[in-house]
Sequence to fold (192 residues):
Amino acid sequence: MPRLALFAIDLVAVSLLVFGLYFPRHRRRDLVVAYLGVNVGVLAVAGSLSSSTVGAGLGLGLFGVLSIIRLRSTELDQHEVAYYFSALALGILGPLSGGPAWLTPALMALILVVMYLGDHPRLFRGYHRQVMVLDTAMTDRTALIAQLERILGARVHAAAVERVDLVNETTTVEVRYSYPAGSRTRTLVEAR
Fold:
């Protein structure tokens, strides 16, 4: 398959990833720019290095270092990291033309399908994660879980205490919970 066609397929794929999947679901404009920039940057460098005597591994290694620095510079949720690496993978696949002509477009489509399904709003929609600050210092785990279930009106699956402040009498806890099937209970925590 001609290299220009692969570049065009990459641009279509990253556009679908960013504008068709990520932005409509998560609405974070700053990451749209990051995903597009990383994809096109990797595509350009990988495309130029794939035809030069400098190994493509060197260029991809440099992008790996840059992406680690980028990921450490701001707090990203795990789904945002997955989109980040999907944009990177699409950019790397773009200039590759080894193997059958269908292989690169098929791998790009596979990435898009996996991201569509894995980040679908209906997948595990009853399960939630929240960091909560309780206005009481709680050191008893059983009492903590009972308090969280009462506040949320949900079943707590995991509660990880991040901080107990005995002076100000607060407890910061990361809680993973789900609502009973068919429940119409909506708390302020869920509505955020």
About this structure: Helices lie at 3-26, 29-49, 56-73, 78-93, 103-118, 141-152, 188-191.
